[in-house]
Amino acid sequence: MSDAQESRAILKDMLRRMLSNRQGEGDMMARWRQLRDELGLLAAPLPEARGGLGGGFADSALIAEELGCWLMPVPFVATSVIAIGLFDALSREDLSDQVVSGDILPVPALMEDGRVMRVRPTATMLREEDGVLRLRGRKELVEDVDMASHLLVPACADRSGEPLLLLLPAALPGMGWSRYRLLDGREAATVVFDDITIAPDAVIGRGEADWQRFEAVLDRAMVATCAEALGLMRAMLGQTVDYVKQRRQFGKTIASFQVVQHRLADMLIEVEQAASVTAMAVQALPDPIAASTAKARTSQALRFVAQNAVQLHGGIGTTEELALSRYFKRAMLLETQYGSAEQHLARVERLREVERSLIG
Amino acid sequence: MSVTERLGLVDMDGFREDVRAFLSTSLTAEMREAADRQAGIYADPDLARDWHLTLYQKGWITPSWPVAYGGTGWTAAQRLTFEVECAAANAPVLPAMGLQMCGPVLIGHGTDEQKARFLPRIRSAEDYWCQGYSEPGAGSDLASLRCRAVRDGDDYVVNGTKIWTTHAQFANWVFLLVRTSSEGPQQAGITFLLAPMDSPGLTVTPIISMSGEHEVNQLFFDNVRVPVALRVGAENNGWEVAKYLLQFERGGAAAGGRPLRLLRSISALMQDAAGEPEHVVHSPQFRRRLTLLEIELSATMWTQRRALSAVASGDPMGVTASSILKLKATEMTQMASELALEALGPFASVDQSVAAVGPVAGRSVAARYLNMRAVSIFGGSSEVQRTILGKELLRR
Hints:
The complex is a heterodimer. Chain A is an alpha+beta fold.
C-alpha cells in the first residue's frame, strides 16, 4: 500500500467511526464543527505542508462519498471544494486558512434565476460611483444560510461587463433575506442585494482568467457531488439488499424472486457505472467534459437507484419513518445540484463540438 | 381527428359539450386552484366534499353504478369522456374508497338491507369510507392476511392490524378483509366486513409519508365487535369479493386521469418559462419525452376503451386489461411527475410546506413526485401486475 493509499484508508476508517454512530443526531452546525475540528476534514485534502494529508482531490472525493453514505449533508463541498479551491486558485491562501480554522464559512450564491442552473451572472451588477462600490441583484437557493458567515457571489461590472467574484459577509447591512427549507431539511434563502455598499476588498476575483479558475472549481464541486451521490447510492442499495432478504411474502423472502434479483442487479450496474465515471472524472480533472460526463451519468444512476430502492421496500419505503426516505430526498437535491443530467449532457455535447472543430 | 378523439373519446350527441358546459359553470375557479395545490393521492376532505356535493346535486356522482342505484346510464365511452374532461378541467380527485370500491362491492355482493343502508349515504357524502386490506405482513401477498375475526353470537370479534389505510383519519366506516378460517388454501378463509370507525377497540395511528403529509394510517383492532349483519357475501367468501374490488380498483377509473392532471402542471410550468430560452422545457429532449408521454396516454385511453367493449363480448382482453391499465396509469403518472420535477428545475429542492418559493405552478410538484412513488406499490404493485399478466398469457 502506498503512503497515499494508507492515509486514505485511515481517513476513511476515522470518518466511518465518527459518522456511523452520529447519524441524525444534533444540529448540523454541531456535527459540522466536530467533523471540521476533531477530524480536520477541511485540512485533509490540503498539502502536508499546510497541515493536510496530501491526498488532494482524491481525498475530497472520498470524504464526500462517506458523507453521502452516512447521509451527512454538511457544507463540505461548499467550503472545502469551492471556497478553499477558489481561494487557493486566486492565491488567497490567507482566506483558505480562515476556512480551515472555522473563522469563516463561505457558501456559494450562484443562481440568479432559480429555474435555471446558470452560473455566469448577467443581472448581479456591481457599480462604482465616486470610489464607492454598490451591488444590485439577487441570488436564489443559497444553501446553508443558517451556517454561513459569508457569501461567495459571482457578479459583473456594470460598465465593462467583466465577471467579478465577491466575498461578502452574510451580515452585511441592506441584504434582503427570505429563508426557506429544503427537502433534506437544510436551510436556504433568496438573497436580494438592493444597491448595497460593499468594501473594496470584498472583490476577490476579477476578469476572464479568474472566472475560468472559478469554473474549474465548480467542475470539481460537481465531481465531489457525484462522489456524495455515489455514497448515497451505495447506502440505498445496501439498505435494499438487507430489506429484501428479511421481508417475506408468499412464504419466502422477496429476495428469492427473480424480478427482485434482476432489479437489484440493475441497481448495482448503475452504482458501478456511476463509481466509474466519478473515478474517471477525479483522474481527468480539470477536464470539464469528464466532469460533466460524470455528473450527467451519476444523476441518471441516482434517480434509478433511489426510485428502485423505494419500490423494492414497498409501502414502508414511502414513509418518513424510514431513513431511506431521507436518502431519497437528499438524492433529489443532488440530482440537480450544479446542474441536472440533461444540462450536463448538453454541456458535454457543446464541449465535444468545440473539441471536434479544433481537431478539424 | 380531434385531440380528445385521440384520447379515445368520441363526442356523441353533444355529450362532451354538455359535460364541458357543466364544468365551466360548476367547477369554480376556487376549486380548480385548490385542486392545483393538492399533492396527495386524493383531494383533501373539504375540497373533495365541495366537488362531491356539486356532482351529487347534478346527479353525476356515480356514473358507473346501475341506474337503479343512482347511476347515470351512460355508455362506457361516455363515462370515460366524463372522467377525462374532469381531469382536463382540473377537478379535485375524489376519494375512491366509497364511490369506486365499497359502492360497487355492495351492489355486486351486498344484501338488500346493506344496499339500502349504505349506497345512498355514499352518494350523498354522508359516509366517508376507508379500505382495510393490507397488513404489515400482507402486502403483495394479500391472501396471507392475519387480522382475525371470530364469531361470537351475532358478532364477529376482530383482532389484528391493517396498514396503509388512506384517509382513515377522516373516515367513519371501514371495509376490511379478515381471516375467519385457517383451513385449506389461504384465500378460502377470508371474510369481507364493514365496521364503523368509532367501534370500541378500533384505533388509528398516523403514518407520515416522505412528503411529510399524513395520508395513510395503521389501524389496530382490539376485540372490536362487528355485527354479522355487516358481513358482505358469505363467511370465508371474502376473497371473491376482494378480487372483484381489486379489478375495479385497477381498471375502473380512467387510466389517464392522474397523468392528465400532471400534464396540466407541466404546461403551466412551460408557460412560466416562456421568457427564459435556456430553460430545460425548451430543449428538444424535454419536448420529445413530453410527446412520448402524450402518445402513451392516447394509446392507453384507447386500450381502456377497447377493454370496455371487450369485457362486454367476452374477449380475453377483458381479463388482462385491468393489469395493463394499472401498469400504464402508474408509469405515465410517475413519468409525468418526473417531467414536472425537471420542468420546475432547481426550485424542486424546496420544501414548499414551510414556505412557498418559486413559480406558482411548481408549488406541489416535489410533493407530488414523492407521493406518486406509491402508485407503483399500492393496489397491486407493478411487479404483481406483470406476474398476473404473465400467468394469464401462459394459461391460455
